[in-house]
Amino acid sequence: GAGVSQSPSNKVTEKGKDVELRCDPISGHTALYWYRQSLGQGLEFLIYFQGNSAPDKSGLPSDRFSAERTGGSVSTLTIQRTQQEDSAVYLCASSLVSPGYEQYFGPGTRLTVT
Amino acid sequence: AQSVSQHNHHVILSEAASLELGCNYSYGGTVNLFWYVQYPGQHLQLLLKYFSGDPLVKGIKGFEAEFIKSKFSFNLRKPSVQWSDTAEYFCAVYNNNDMRFGAGTRLTVKP
User: Fold this and answer.
1) Which of A19, A77, B58, B99 is the most exposed place for a label (fewest CB within 10 A)?
2) How far is CA B42 from the centre of its chain?
3) Which residues of B touch A106 (CB under 8 A)?
């Protein structure tokens, strides 16, 4: 079956502009995660959605970052007024039921802020 | 919040050498433990996991990991590495809706 997909695969934007990153999880997976992967920094948790519950936003680095998940499926991560330090690969993952189960990762979106 | 530590940032081995990558976590309660791998140009994928039972778990491609509760550790091992094992390896710990990854260990296997 189809895996987790993310778009765009690459995004170059100017400092100060807003960007939207999209994630399509595996059908039927109720848990969805966003992570940021910076060079040498590993995976940094950003936000977690579980079904219809309020998302866990504890990992968002600033109020410029927000995310939503529509209809329990597709998710969009929005970064407003991008800064150069936002440059990273943004990864989305989904899992069946809860994050305690295996997470399936998408290919990521490489964001470059110039 | 719990934390996950991977002791080695970059490990370089020759083919057929044995591998052990360290992983320690901070939470003392019940945890689910994972090792993920990211081969060059590919997605992160699950290598192995521990939920309960036998603390020695076997994963794909000859990897195994041992959960030592008293040491809060979940080290990854392989008796004989291959060039194709060159990748980045991430340890992850789940507890109470909180999933945390380590910083990763880059493994380079020289042919």
Assistant:
1) B58
2) 17
3) 43
State the Cα torsion B60-A41-B42-A47 to the nearest 10°: 90
Residues of B in contact with A33 (CB under 8 A): 99
Take residue B8 and report the two structure tokens written for it. Answer: 């080695």
pLDDT per residue over A13-52, tens digit each?
Answer: 999 999 999 999 999 898 999 999 987 677 888 999 988 8
d(CA B30, CA B69): 10
Q: How far is B107 from chain A (nearest CA, A)?
A: 13
Q: Omega before A55 cis (within 30°)?
A: no
For A36, the token pair is 């940021």
Q: Give how far B23 is from chain A: nearest CA, Å.
A: 13
Structure tokens at A51: 């079904």
